[in-house]
């Protein structure tokens, strides 16, 4: 699972239901690995300087992660609208925000099929664009729902930079992660499916081409440190979240794993080596090792001027 999502498994409807509806646990246990709360506060207050109430819409909101983080930091009177195709995730979101002291609305639907009026001050997305085949068109939809001088903010993945940012004590990084192979794998995935795990680093360019101005891009701040010398509870929580995020996961049955990579354009040798590295990692990764890991999300913002 260190090779990140296989987009082919990430289809909208599967035999056992909508893929993301079964991922509440993953979503709720992993988001905190990306940002420190004080950094999000710093962005809202010192960088984007949001001082009056705003109407926010969150594309691909899941259970409303961004709402839970941003809304408490926003001026009173701000509102939050979440849109997602996962019925169960939307139900979770409604439950989570039931007692919230701000106005919220959750819309169930496929964003590809939806049109939005120019009625929001801020449009956001988090780890969403990488799951659509047409990120540029979706960015256009996002800017279309903004009022004049509205702000777009995209928190998106940059997988290859993420993959380069693990250090497990005592192990050469190249014995865990084949960066060159992964770089090509991700590029081929994008060529084939349109879905792009590295979309975060491209969003500034896409937005500029769509006429967005005052574009700025930052990187997520958090560097996670698994430290066997710290309190066991804290260490366990981080270890469990890293496992949920896929780090050190059992790669499963060898033949299936290799076939899957061959279907994604890997050579047999590359696929076999990847299997060996992931098996090795799943055996050495435990609560008793030192690990540092920086997810390296890219946070891009800009203003739409009509
Ligand atoms: C990785 S999850 C991120 C969820 C949330 N933003 C978070 O970070 O916790 C991607 C989300 O995008 C949603 N999604 C993907 N394609 C969609 C579409 N076409 N319409 C609506 N939602 C979509 C999925 O249902 C899923 O909840």
Radius of gyration: 20 Å
Q: Could you list the spans in which at least 5 consecutive residues all have pLDDT below 50?
A: none
Question: Helix amount, in percent?
Answer: 25-40%
Bound molecules: S-adenosylmethionine
- The number of helical elements comes to 11
Report the β-strand fraction as a percent range: 15-25%
CATH superfamily of the domain at 17-162 and 194-223 and 295-303: Vaccinia Virus protein VP39
Q: Give the distance, in angstroms, between the N- and C-terminal Cα atoms.
A: 44 Å
CATH class descriptor name of the domain at 17-162 and 194-223 and 295-303: Alpha Beta
Q: CATH topology of the domain at 17-162 and 194-223 and 295-303, which one?
A: Rossmann fold
Average pLDDT: 95
The ordered H/E elements are: EEHHEHEHEEHEHEHHEEHHHEE
Which assembly state applies to the chains in this document? single chain
The SS-based structural class is alpha/beta
Q: How many extended strands?
A: 12
Q: How does the overall form come out from the CA principal axes?
A: globular
The major pleated sheet works out as: 7 strands, mixed
Second CATH tier, the architecture of the domain at 17-162 and 194-223 and 295-303: 3-Layer(aba) Sandwich
Strands ordered across the widest β-sheet? 5-4-3-6-7-12-9
